[in-house]
Amino acid sequence: MNNDKEYLNNLRHSCAHLVAAAVIDLYPGAQNAIGPAIEDGFYQDFDLGDHVISEDDLPRIEEKMKKILESWDSMNEEIVTPEKAKEVFHWNQYKREIVDDILARDEQVKLQTSGSFIDLCRGGHVKKPKEELKYFKLLSVAGAYWKGNEKNKMLTRIYGTAFESKDELDKHLTLLEEAKKRDHRKLGRDLDLFYFSDLVGRGLPLFTPKGTVLREELNAFSQGLRQKRGFQKVWIPHITKNDLYKTSGHWDKFGDELFLVKSQETNDELVMKPMNCPHHQQIYASRPRSYKDLPIKYLETTTIYRDEKAGELLGLSRVRSVTQDDSHIFSTPEQISDIFQMLIEISKEFYQALDMKFRVRLSYRDPHEPDKYLGDPKLWESAQEIIQKIAQQNKLEYYEAPGEAAFYGPKIDFMILDALGREWQIATAQLDFVQPSRFSLKYTDKDGVEKIPVMIHYALVGSLERFLAVYIEHTAGNFPLWLAPIQVAVLPVSDKINDVARKMFELFNEADIRVELDTEAKTLPAKIREWTLKKVPYMCIIGHKEAEKGDSISVRTRDGKDLGLQNIYEFIKQLKQDIGKKI
Amino acid sequence: MNNDKEYLNNLRHSCAHLVAAAVIDLYPGAQNAIGPAIEDGFYQDFDLGDHVISEDDLPRIEEKMKKILESWDSMNEEIVTPEKAKEVFHWNQYKREIVDDILARDEQVKLQTSGSFIDLCRGGHVKKPKEELKYFKLLSVAGAYWKGNEKNKMLTRIYGTAFESKDELDKHLTLLEEAKKRDHRKLGRDLDLFYFSDLVGRGLPLFTPKGTVLREELNAFSQGLRQKRGFQKVWIPHITKNDLYKTSGHWDKFGDELFLVKSQETNDELVMKPMNCPHHQQIYASRPRSYKDLPIKYLETTTIYRDEKAGELLGLSRVRSVTQDDSHIFSTPEQISDIFQMLIEISKEFYQALDMKFRVRLSYRDPHEPDKYLGDPKLWESAQEIIQKIAQQNKLEYYEAPGEAAFYGPKIDFMILDALGREWQIATAQLDFVQPSRFSLKYTDKDGVEKIPVMIHYALVGSLERFLAVYIEHTAGNFPLWLAPIQVAVLPVSDKINDVARKMFELFNEADIRVELDTEAKTLPAKIREWTLKKVPYMCIIGHKEAEKGDSISVRTRDGKDLGLQNIYEFIKQLKQDIGKKI
Question: Interface pTM (ipTM) of the complex?
Fold first, then answer.
């Protein structure tokens, strides 16, 4: 079996052609646009004219695909003239526009024929679709702008996937089913964590009190790990004159992603910050520094703004307001090794507490293209060696990725594995040999000579919003006690016990345990069901027996375990200990 | 003696004319622009042509003023035609422009003559300047744009003041002298608290680690006082579609002060938020609410942005990035009284801890202009009664200010008195009968009917930046122990003792006391002078005697008190207690 990534991509790309053939057959006048393979599957875009497709139509399309597949013994490519291609696609304005794009790039125009279906395509298919393309599934329907630009027409996009074996397909579909249940957008609504308002706008989440607890607790943990290692908090505004980015070199790089800010009262040309490093460097630059001051470690959790395309926004995974638990370390070259060792220790402590496994990617420069990178090559070599040595010394699972470094320095990326086996790049520790010199940062060394410090960018949570998207799905909303927005629900079994229950509620409250009291006129089973759905770690039931004793509760967990009768003071003591240990 | 405010304004305005006469006499070709009385004095603007005036020239100008004054027995007003006025001011383009402005407002053009000096002026003078205008002083020189618009020419502004008696003038000059020493911009630089970078821009401070300690500690105190009373943190982004403000009604009101945000990727019309209430109301609106949920108390410290005129920006007193410790309370009308009682308690606790006296201003609607205010008049009446009753019950020093309310509800303003006797409006608790209905906010009442909640805006520190400006000057940088960016400096008397000193330093560090260790090769007196200038509350001196004992330090305070030999563990224990008590 050929299970390499390229073959899977070809299989899926072939399947996209097959969907196109089926839809054009079923919906007269439909025009297919692009249909690439993507991570875990493929999509195919259509202008359906007056037709509308919903997910209910997918089985019918799949049937048609299977029928058409019978005649797809092979896929044949042919290079043609642009004129010929436009003639073939006289019925399809999108394909004709793509022909023009191909010409603009000075590439060849290729047609691809399977059975009676002809498509414009740059290649990458399986040879015998009829035999190879057995295990596919259409998954969903969405809207997507032609070329991703919301000024263009909205097309219909059909998502699907294909695998080499039934087993792999089934496994993937089960995973998708589980992911759907854990979808952070659904859980965010059900658990009242965050909210998108039409008046505020796309990609701009509002966090409710419960969602804000998650943000605050995660952030406090991340900051605490760094503060006890000498990081100092600083504060910067969210806007700046664009001069700052013209100096840093980001002005050209970020281009369209920058939100421009118009001052009506002054001539200042302002932008919202898309990163924090240039501001932090201005704080470093605000007074003379000596080697004795280094390393200087700034820390700030602050929100950056990036003008993402509307079509790319997705729940908390991709937002326009990105809150980073950022830090920037200024050091001598000799200190790099100790600093990376410290950053590895912080990261390990953080992800272990969150019960998330990780491996690291060592992102080096591409040795075949040395001109793509700035900074002293010797510094690069030694820094890459340091990073690798640190990964080995700490017995990290790592892999090397030449060509993955930014142009200004090598980095360590922390790749997190979630409960569904999906991998996410979260934290990163990034060397920077370039920016400090652009901002003329200096320190006076032992020998009295002025030198340029090295800068290290480091974020632990990375984007708080994106991390929450991952973490909510990782835990399916069953947050550990220390993070749970509500840690305990107090459930009296009847009205007569409400007063006793309120006293117990106050005991939790005074102990700074996040608690709610449920005095609704409902049966106990109804209350238990409700608070289980709210995924509250502990339910404290106060029945007549408990109320009589005065200091007793019956404790039940959200996963249905009955912990029996407990002394409330002992229980609170236990909870406080667990919270302290980040359990 | 006539010491009312109007007379003082007339006196100062007359003095502005006198400066104009003197400068025009001394600097041929100089043109005087406007010269109004302001809080505590006056200013007079000039276009000096090629001349330049510095503060060194002020004594010479004062001399000339005194000479001219001899001929100013009276000030005479005369109404003239615009043509006549323009003829008189053929030499002064600014006065001619003002004549046009007066015409546009359909007002009378008046000339005012004293001795041989004629000025254009709308009136407000003393009758006999020669007798009345004896106690004046020119204070400083600055640049100021014509009409405050940076697109216009930069003029020269001379500031001065005048009083009715020598005693009052001397007292004021002493106060200015003291204020100058305490100027928060100077202390901010000397104590390394904040920094303005030319690349980032005007009105956009960067806070260093030390300044950030002040922000964080003040904010934590303010938030803690509210969290223990059931306020819940929320989080909102710093931008929004302008639709939010079109709905709230702020779009027209804020006009020029709004920073507009241009999205290059979408058609969204965005702005930076100039306040937080509309966003917080969207969180309230995100799900149905019952009377049982009220009051709902949201709390968030977040930065708003206002596009102030460049000429109005001043240190931290007036910035473009304003961080507010904001809160919004949603309640039933019946809950207003309890909520205000709670807010008074919070405010008292806060300002008492900071050793700042305050009185409150009860800002009511103007009973003569009921049409200027929105909302049910009965609700206004009862709310104003509640506010007054609360002020009385709490034995607050208060005064009533009809006409000072916003159009949407009455408020309590907390007016803080600083160490120099200056009064500042800081915290405010503001009722709002209007916005909740604009956003269609609802709650289901006991009777099952949907009703509109009342909203209360409340900030304690107000603007963190402005508060710090006031507070730095109030304390002259001698922050109390719990707030001091560095709480303790450990000073070994010689190199040989550095190791012992480092161990002591670590003891403070482990106790979470903000400490620095000074191992520079300097004499002890030099070290003491340096750390006294840095205004660090306690200096712990480790001499040979202390080093031998191993657990002893000699303690000295920043105001020069010698606390003698102390056991370090006892001393740390005492510090922790004092910090806990906000001493």
Answer: 0.87
